[in-house]
Design brief:
The chain is built from 5 helices and no strands. The protein starts with a helix and ends with a helix. It has one domain. The protein is mainly alpha-helical. It is globular, with a radius of gyration of 16 Å.
Length: 123
């Protein structure tokens, strides 16, 4: 891997790590577009790579947040159960979509939730 690609990956990691820790978004909202734009990864590859990175990122942030008493463990448990099950099916569904369709879906989700947060001042 070229040095420039490694440096780009490190920069994406810095930005997404900070944003993930501050906003609780897992970093994917930053990583996926950055992987597509800067590294020219196909959308499906960007999504899958982002998910692989979220595991250690989430563990590190959760450790800090748990120490601070910010984690609502019952909410986390029940949400994790359903999210894990349906993430498996979502990953299977990913195989059937084109990169273009997936990019559009991702973009719409970012715009809708981003606009709502900006206009209402909450998630």
């Amino acid at each position: 891997m070229p040095t420039s690609t490694i440096l780009t990956c490190l920069a994406i990691g810095v930005v997404s790590g900070v944003i993930a820790a501050l906003c609780g978004v897992g970093g994917g909202v930053v990583m996926v577009p950055a992987f597509v734009f800067f590294l020219k990864l196909p959308q499906k590859t960007a999504v899958a790579t982002s998910l692989a990175i979220i595991i250690p990122t989430a563990l590190m942030a959760t450790t800090q947040n748990a120490r601070s008493g910010y984690v609502e463990w019952k909410v986390a448990l029940f949400t994790a159960i359903s999210a894990s099950i349906f993430a498996y099916f979502g990953a299977g569904w990913l195989k059937t979509m084109s990169n273009e369709t997936l990019t559009r879906i991702f973009g719409v989700i970012l715009v809708v939730f981003g606009a709502r947060m900006l206009l209402q001042g909450k998630a």
